[in-house]
Design a protein that fits this description.
- The chain is an alpha/beta fold.
- The chain has two domains: 158 residues, NAD(P)-binding Rossmann-like Domain (Rossmann fold); 121 residues, N-(1-d-carboxylethyl)-l-norvaline Dehydrogenase, domain 2, CATH 1.10.1040.10.
- It is 55% helix and 12% strand.
- The strands form two sheets. The protein has a six-stranded parallel β-sheet with strand order 3-2-1-4-5-6, with helices on both faces. Strands 7-8-9 form a three-stranded mixed β-sheet.
- Helix 9 packs across helix 12, helix 9 runs parallel beside helix 14 and helix 12 runs antiparallel to helix 13.
- The mean pLDDT is 97.
């Protein structure tokens, strides 16, 4: 079996590296050559064009957003190069509307389509311990499950329609952003009354939210003011919250927290925080009180 991976950013590079453990030939492509070369040195084969990856039996993609995915998979000729019966596994966080459009494009070509966005930061991806949210038919997911198992500790099934998994992922990222903003504001409130952020974070992660990796991990980053290097860029969080709000609106469901967070993200981006980690929402909360 031939497999391929398109999109070797911080997450994709580690996920592709774990796929090398399958023993199957792995073709890789990325816009910039450095991540490709690193994987070639580990045994992968470099694809000269995205379309070359389309010749594989199973094609994985982990691209930044709807536009990047469309540019590579559709405009880049990957789908046109894929043979009927092959499978594309899209592991990116994309909009529900785009996921539905992609599913239709695959059906028209006789290509299998699985949505498999992931939960986990870069270190989790490197360890092969991601949680994978899969949407698609049982038959398609069963065919790629051994490969998913190389990248994740568990595959969670969410419906036969691929876009259902994307809706769940957007819900997860909305919840994540709410949690981080809440920690940031709580820490800022304590700080405004002379209590160090570290003391506040220690309290809530030992009591109210004990055992939560989100509160522990992101809370620690807020307490230490450690916003770089970014494991999950604030700009990507902004995109995901926007997509969540749009997905809710499409179903007649307003998301009050989502609307509020869009204002918060704009505020942070306008202050130059787009390239920082999502934990920088904590920095933004403090800044509202007049701190730099």
């Amino acid at each position: 079996m031939q497999i391929a991976f398109l999109g070797l950013g911080a997450m994709g590079h580690n996920m592709a590296a774990n796929l090398l453990k399958s023993g199957h030939p792995l073709h890789v492509w990325n816009r910039s050559p450095e991540p490709v070369q690193a994987l070639v040195e580990s045994g992968a084969k470099a694809a000269a064009t995205p379309a070359e990856c389309g010749l594989a039996d199973v094609v994985f993609s982990m691209l930044a957003d709807d536009d990047a995915t469309r540019a590579v998979l559709v405009d880049g000729g990957v789908l046109d190069a894929m043979a009927p019966g092959s499978i594309h596994v899209n592991m990116a966080t994309v909009s529900v509307a785009f996921a539905r459009e992609m599913a239709a494009l695959h059906v028209a070509r006789g290509i299998g389509y699985v949505a498999a966005p992931v939960l986990g930061r870069v270190d989790v991806a490197a360890a092969g311990k991601l949680n994978i949210l899969a949407g698609g038919t049982d038959e398609l997911i069963a065919r790629v499950q051994p490969l998913l198992d190389l990248m994740g500790q568990k595959t969670w099934r969410f419906g036969d329609a691929p876009e259902q998994a994307n809706a769940v992922k957007l819900g997860c990222n909305l919840t994540l952003a709410c949690a981080i903003e809440a920690m940031g504001e709580g820490s800022a409130l304590a700080g405004a009354h002379g209590i160090p952020a570290a003391s506040f974070i220690e309290l809530i992660t030992s009591t109210l939210f004990a055992g939560s990796p989100v509160y522990k991990g992101y809370g620690g980053m807020i307490a230490e003011e450690r916003y770089s290097p970014a494991g999950f860029k604030l700009s990507l969080g902004q995109k995901d919250v926007r997509l969540a709000v749009e997905a809710g609106r499409a179903q007649g469901l307003p998301l009050a927290f989502g609307d509020a967070l869009q204002t918060v993200f704009k505020e942070a981006v306008d202050h130059g925080d787009a390239g920082l980690d999502l934990a920088a929402l904590g920095k933004n909360a403090v800044r509202r009180g007049g701190a730099a």
